Amino acid sequence: MSATSQDNVIKLADLVGRPAAKPEPFVLSDAEKHEIEHELTHFPDGRAASIEALKIVQKHRGWVPDGALEPIARMIGIGAAELEGVATFYSLIYRQPVGRHVIKVCDSITCFLVGYDEIKATLERTLGIGYGQTTADGRFTLLPICCIGACDKGPALMIDDDLHTDLTPQNVVGLLEAYP
Amino acid sequence: MATIHVDGKQYEVNGAENLLEACLNLGLDIPYFCWHPALGSVGACRQCAVKAFRDENDKQGRIVMSCMTPASNGTFISIDDEEAKQFREAIVEFLMTNHPHDCPVCEEGGHCHLQDMTVMTGHHSRSYRFDKRTHLNQDLGPFIGHEMNRCISCYRCVRYYKDYAGGTDLGVYGAAANVYFGRPEDGTLESEFSGNLTEVCPTGVFTDKTHSERYNRKWDMQYAPSICESCAVGCNLSPGERYGEIRRVENRYHGELNGYFLCDRGRFGYGYTNRKDRPRQPLVAGEVVTRETAIAAATAALKGKKVLGIGSPRASLEANYALRGLVGAEAFHDGHALGDAALVQLALAIVRDGPVRASTISEIEGADAVLVLGEDPTATAPRFALAIRQAARGKGKALAAEKKLAEWQTIALADLLQRDSYPVFIASVDTTRLDDIARATHRAAPEDLARLGYAIAHAIDASAPAVSGLDAATAELAQTIATALASAKRPLVVSGTGAGSPAVLQAAANVAWALKAKNDATGLALSLPEANSFGTALLGGASLEAALTQIESGAVDTLVVLENDLYRRAPQARVEAALARLKHLIVIDHQATPTAARAQVVLPAATVFEGDGTLVNYEGRAQRFFQVFDPTYYDNKIGLTESWRWLADLEARSAWKILDDVTAACAQALPALAGIVAAAPGAAFRIDGLKVAREPHRYSGRTAMRANQSVHEPRQPQDPDTALSFSMEGYNGTGSLDRPPELTPYAWSPGWNSPSAWNKFQQEIGGSLRGGDPGKQLFAAGAGKPYFGEVPAAFAPRGDAYRVLALHLHFGGDELSSRAEPIVKRASPAFVAISRADAVKSGVNGHATLAIDGAQLRLPTYISDTLPAGTIGLPAGFAGVPFFVHGALATVSGG
Amino acid sequence: MSAAIEKDLLVRPLTARITAGLPVDLASYEATGGYRALRRALKELSPADVQSRVKDSNLRGRGGAGFPTGVKWGLVPMGPDAGAKYLVCNADEMEPNTFKDRLLMEDAPHQLIEGMLVAGYAIQATAGYIFLRGEYVKAAARLNAALAEARAAGLLGPTDGKGILGSGWDFTLVVHTGAGRYICGEETALINSLEGRRANPRAKPPFPQIAGAWGRPTVVNNVESLCNIAPIVEYGAEWFRGLSQGKSKDGGTKLYGASGRVKRGGIYELPIGTTAREILEEHAGGMREGYTLKCWLPGGASTDFLMPEHLDLAMDFDTIAKAGSRMGTGLILALDQTHNMVAAVRNLEEFFARESCGWCTPCRDGLPWSVKMLKALEEGRGSAEDIVQLEKLTKLLGPGKTFCAHAPGAMEPLQSALKFFRSEFEAGVAKTPAAAAGADALAATGASSAKVA
Ligand SMILES: Cc1cc2nc3c(=O)[nH]c(=O)nc-3n(C[C@H](O)[C@H](O)[C@H](O)COP(=O)(O)O)c2cc1C
Ligand code: SF4
Ligand code: FES
């Protein structure tokens, strides 16, 4: 049975034994909805837009909050558990808040062989955080990433969507200034 | 057929299976995890590796996964190959790098597939010397425990829950060595079939929480072959007892009925047996008395009096027959609720005398077009619903066949299928829990559902009666459904008594019969109110209406009520008035019901777990259930016994010494029930001169378990009624002989302690049990019958009152299971459903006050967007919802 | 200008436009012969003709496995009733030390689009998808801009039934960007990911050409493979075979590359079969001052190490396979004398362990185990048993044992490192059991990294 009214005492959830709904209902913004709807037109099945839909929400909010799963899942026609399965599979979908900027340091073999350790250590020392952590001011999150296809110019990293190559412990600190 | 060569020996196999299945069928053991007969092959765990050779001259070979390799003609493999053996051992070692070594405190221990496979592969000491990964667990509600550290990532749980059972709230998260199986967040699992996770999971991640509270090892419980009483499907159960309590119910494989899976009501609803408030000693005028006193009091109330008996569709045939014997055939009433007896008789006439006999569950799974008319099968015959899901998915097999893929290539099947399915049409009074697979749904009052059905039948066969005045949309829908059913290879009609409407049953019969004329493979499945509805109907008692009328007239002195609560069967006021006119009320029951509370004599009865008897399911299959334990062994004050024994004693009939005597008498007296004797071997049956042991051969602690009462161990209870012994003494399956499937109490086979052992009992994997699937079909195929012709008039909402419709819910409506604690937790509170427009019109806001059959009640409202206008829905059988007759009218006002 | 480029295109069909530094827009592409192959295919050639040209060209897939492209296409059901079919470009490029497809997509997007159009025509695909890794932001922008231009010019569908260039055959093409995970590059995992699912690989059979994306026939080809299609159709199979200049029996050029401490790391388009020595010493300029070549990976993290004595081998699929490795993506990574092999392999296995999809047991649970042992050996607290166990793992995670080629790929550098540099592993065995135990205990408290550093 599908109930939609807010005021009725018995809800669908009661009938199937769902836990009580979260107090603050999550609403996708019109922009998010619009962009997801556009994605849906590209594929024979709405499910195919799942990754893109998660990325859209992430673009607007920095990460994918718990409450977003249900409405996105509904838009693309799958269950929330299944969408969460997708969201947690892919490493570039963040299911926890991240800083304003995400630094992704390539830790794959080529960068590793040409000085990755020092770059990583410099960043950790400068920012005072390790992998998976966010600076106290919410400015940076530090993550490892696999080979970003800049091996001939390693060590390399990405800050948000920007690629930075030929890094040295000296030049890497200066890069951060462009990301307030 | 195909010839395969395994370790130098030649075998004939059917050629359609994979090698794993083929070898298991041949009795050759290959360990496995991710494969499951009902879930197919996915090749994830890599446990089932064998060496495959190109031909007999190939000495090198290569490792293949037997579950992913067809057993085609000319296959050469080796299971014993050294490299294959080492690889399989290594797989367990890999799994054990993360699996905790916690068998002593793990509830799975002793019936754990992982333990069995570990022993089978010979892995015993590990070289891994590093940390294990750990996970947090979730609270998954009252049924299922969650211990994720034990997970071996075989993906069976999601494949079962999501793909097989259609659940949406269990998933797999993460990747690499950090995969997690659970809900998106803590909370009760929504599926009504969640309990199967406990058997599908090969380790102790998902365990039976109802068991955790009173836990013991599998080998320390006493079992008997049993039958579920929660609906008329008659799923086979393997309940386990210790210390006089039922502690767990597991699936007992049945090839044609439940297969590997039960519903949650059947699995977790056993707690009514353990309730403290049950009558366990005879009562006279509310006082505990001796057996003799009780019998004397009852006999006095019967002797020379005008006596009526009301039987019960939740009691065994033997109990009902004994009551019939006591009061006489004329005075025997079948105990169904007002209105239901006629519906059950109609359903009986349809499946017994009509041209389409009832489909088995496995036949339902094989249907390729389904019409559900007037039911929510998830509530009224849950195992139908799970089967209908498989029918819908079955199209994947057809698509695979086109691409020459094997049926067991589960993932390929799903990839081909995408969101396609065989058509399922659902016409019901409100939404159902199968709507997610429906090609089309239709919501209407019962008359209109019947009209739709009649119209479908007419569209299939013009000689079936036509419906006049159908609106265009419904007519078009009827045509669509008719076309889909008529063009199907194995069409199926599912209906039943749930809508409370004879017209719905008749319409469903017409559709099935119209199809049958064109297609012999047509199926029909009708759900019934209770576990033994057909059994009592075959006994042919008069209706409750007739009984009440007689009692109301004052002509009756004494009423004997067998395992029945009249307050669930007729309006309260009417029951009270009738009971008030009696001189004596004798109640034989195992529950403290309101009816029992009014009785002068209460004779405590055995539940299905404490006695033996026969039930007849929706197909007309007579099945015997067997006593699991003797409660008096632990407490000699307990005075309960099988209802038929009380009745035999009341009659002082010496001829009935054991169950077989009653069964035989019943079979002899009623030709329609002649087959029930053959439903299971009788008490004289022996294997190798032995009775069949109820307890596994490793049962422990017997000498100590009554030590709190006396350090002398008494003699084990004797069981005169059956071929089973209350003991580990007897034949327990450790020898080479099969126990008859009807007498197999639990799944165990050498080396196979988990429910996977069932595969060792089958003729072929996933098929019938060796010796045939339990039970005896009482109905032969019927002859052609003329179409039903009374097309009802359309439902017309009335201005002044609402038609009350019965809404069926999986949890909370069934009498016995809703007395079990975990089911109570899982059920929703009582409510009244009303359409949005009517809610506005009648001014209800959150709550509504109803006047129905002279009773007033106030209930929270559920605003339905689908319930037909002019109707309200009440959850049938719920605590707080009084009985109402089909078609009752109610007035509704706000607050 | 254009004539010079066109001449260069006959030698270096993939990068002639790029090295000339041409703008990446449609006008410049068409001015240098772009979309001629498409026009020719649609007007003059049947799908079967295109397929046979590609088959005759001996083009072998550039995604790493070297499967003949024409043969792959030949498995696709053809005919008027074949229904929806898909062409998917594998632009996931996540194999460590691989950076060739990025170049093609960023600097020659129209060549990929034209290649997909022609390939799509050959298999009569109804739609195409470019499965691009999410981090390639610039490539996504360039490709989307190029797609918009192509659509506006009527070179791409939807065309409302008229078909592309009036041919009656319609084809849409969109970029689908991923969200991480190396395994998405495995073609069946890619299909799952494209469908919006978890990127677990699928079992074969059924092969994607029979039942792939959305259950329909699907061809997955690498970016570089597809970029070769238009030139093959335009200049012919014979021309393409001749491009290898007799250095290999395979046809065409190959994007080779070099990285590590070489003088001029980068990508070079050379005849397929060019020797590793020529690539490293001539094109990459040899090792930097003070560094000598210790060993090399021929084409990505999932290939076996080769030694300096293997440098004269022709870099083609068969020759490198005979030497016990795989050409893979053909981008050479040079290791020098400063590199410790246990550390290098530990880094590689960490990558593979982290990027496992988690579906099958040996890969999911075996790779993390290998990392722990390698780490122990790297930190001098290993045991002799670890080396035995690592050797066992190379068999247990080998080809056929796991569900897909991810884990076998992971075992290649490990097994070759154990073969060539065993003493470096043995050096990591703790001198006393107590040292090993002590180090383990420290590791558990997190204190060991300080000590080792
Ligand atoms: C783990 C794994 C990762 C792969 N990653 C890629 C990739 O990033 N790009 C690619 O083109 N092929 C990749 N492949 C190979 C593809 O599976 C497939 O062979 C290829 O895309 C086919 O294209 P081709 O025939 O044009 O080479 C990968 C294979 C495996 C097993
Ligand atoms: S080998 Fe690894 S990546 Fe491939 S299916 Fe198995 S777990 Fe997944
Ligand atoms: S049972 Fe064959 S791989 Fe799991």
Quick tags:
heterotrimer, B: 895 residues, alpha/beta, Ubiquitin-like (UB roll), Dimethylsulfoxide Reductase, domain 2, 26 helices, C: 453 residues, Rossmann fold, de novo design (two linked rop proteins), 3 domains, 4-stranded parallel beta sheet, 4-stranded mixed beta sheet, 11% strand, binds flavin mononucleotide, binds iron/sulfur cluster, binds FE2/S2 (inorganic) cluster
Map the helices and strands.
The complex is a heterotrimer of chains A (180), B (895) and C (453).
Chain A: H1 12-16, H2 30-40, H3 50-61, H4 69-76, H5 80-89, E1 101-106, H6 109-113, H7 116-127, E2 140-145, E3 157-159, E4 162-164, H8 169-175
Parallel strand pairs in A: 1-2
Antiparallel strand pairs in A: 1-3, 3-4
Chain B: E1 2-6, E2 9-13, H1 19-25, E3 49-53, E4 62-65, E5 75-78, H2 82-96, H3 113-121, E6 144-146, H4 156-164, E7 171-175, E8 178-182, H5 197-200, E9 206-208, H6 209-212, E10 222-223, E11 226-227, E12 236-242, E13 245-251, H7 264-268, E14 283-284, E15 287-288, H8 291-302, E16 307-310, H9 317-327, E17 332-333, H10 340-353, H11 361-365, E18 369-373, H12 377-380, H13 382-393, H14 395-402, H15 410-417, E19 424-428, E20 440-443, H16 446-460, H17 472-486, E21 491-496, H18 502-518, E22 523-527, H19 533-539, H20 544-552, E23 558-562, H21 572-580, E24 584-589, H22 594-597, E25 601-604, E26 613-616, E27 621-625, H23 643-651, H24 659-669, E28 692-693, E29 724-725, E30 776-777, E31 802-807, H25 821-826, E32 832-835, H26 836-842, E33 847-852, E34 855-864, E35 871-875, E36 889-894
Parallel strand pairs in B: 1-5, 16-17, 16-23, 18-19, 18-21, 19-20, 21-22, 23-24, 24-25, 28-29, 31-35, 32-34
Antiparallel strand pairs in B: 1-2, 3-4, 3-5, 6-9, 7-8, 10-12, 11-12, 12-13, 14-15, 14-25, 26-27, 27-30, 31-36, 32-35, 33-34, 33-36
Chain C: H1 2-9, H2 16-19, H3 26-31, H4 36-44, H5 47-56, H6 69-74, E1 86-91, H7 100-107, H8 109-123, E2 127-132, H9 137-152, E3 172-177, H10 187-194, E4 218-222, H11 223-227, H12 229-235, H13 237-242, E5 253-260, E6 266-271, H14 276-283, E7 293-297, H15 317-322, E8 331-336, H16 341-355, H17 361-378, H18 384-396, H19 406-420, H20 422-426, H21 433-445, H22 448-452
Parallel strand pairs in C: 1-2, 1-4, 2-3, 5-8
Antiparallel strand pairs in C: 5-6, 7-8
Helix pairs in contact in C: 4-8, 4-12, 5-8, 7-8, 7-9, 8-12, 16-17, 16-19, 17-18, 18-19
The structure holds flavin mononucleotide, iron/sulfur cluster (SF4) and FE2/S2 (inorganic) cluster.
FE2/S2 (inorganic) cluster binds next to loops of chain B.
